[in-house]
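Sample intake — Sugar phosphate isomerase/epimerase
Collected from: Flagellimonas allohymeniacidonis
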Amino acid sequence: MGLQLFTIRDAMEKDPLGSLKKVKELGYEDLEIYGYNGEEDTYYGIKTSEFKNVLSDIGLTTSSGHYGLHEFFDKPESQLIRYVDQCIEGAKILDQDYITWPWLDPKFRNSEGFKKLSNKLNKIGEQVTNAGLGFAYHNHGFEFELHGDQMGYEIILAETDPELVKLQMDLYWVMHSSQIKPADWVAKQPGRYVMWHIKDMDKITRDYTELGNGSIDYHTILPNPKDSGLQYYYLEQGGNFAINSIQSITDSAAYFKKHLQQYL
C-alpha cells in the first residue's frame, strides 16, 4: 500500500521522522515523495543518503518521486539536463524506479505548450531511461481541456514515446475533469499506465476528501491493473481534510484495506 507524502506535507515539515513512523504504523509500505533539492541533495532537509537510511530503519520504500522538473520548463535546456542528472542520482540512492513529472504552469497550458511539453518529456525520458530508471507524467484536470479539437492529454499521448514516457493516472482528476473514464484511457494505450493515484471526491464541493467519504465508486471505475501495466499505486489527498492530514491518511488506509486492496 503506497502513500504520496504530499498528503501530509504539513506534518513532514514539522516532524519528518515522526511522520514517517506514523505512516508505517498505519500499514503503508511504499512512498511517492516530493520536494527534492538538487543543489543541496536533500529530501525534506535531509541528505539523500541519510534519508535512505531513515526509510530503511523504519521499513519503508519509495518507488517514485514527484520532482520539480516543471520549474525548468522555460529555462535553458542545459539547466534542465543538469537537474535531471541530479534527480537520477537521488532516485538511485533511494532505489526508486520512477522519476515523475508532476505539474505544468497555467501559462503553458495551450496547444503550443503541450507540444513543447511533449518534446521535453521525450528528451527527459531518454535521459532517465539511459540511466536505467523509468520516467512518467502525472495528470491533473487541466490536461482534459480542449485546445482546438484536441485535449492537452491527447497531445501528450500522441507526441510522446510510450517506451520513454510512462503515465501516472490520477484517478480523481480523470473522474473530476475527463469525459473519458479511466478504463477507456487505459484501452487507448494499454500497458502504459504504470502508476495510479487513488483519492476520493467530495459529493458536494468536488474537492478532495478521504476515501469512502466521496462520490467515486472505485468498485466500478478501477481499470484492470494488468491492462493498465500497473506497478505502483499511492493513496493521496491534497487537502480539504476532515480533521487533519494524519487523521485523513488513517481513515483512507482503513477504508482502502477493507474495501479496495483486494482489487490490487
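Post-analysis note: Residues 2-263 form a domain with the TIM Barrel fold (CATH 3.20.20.150).
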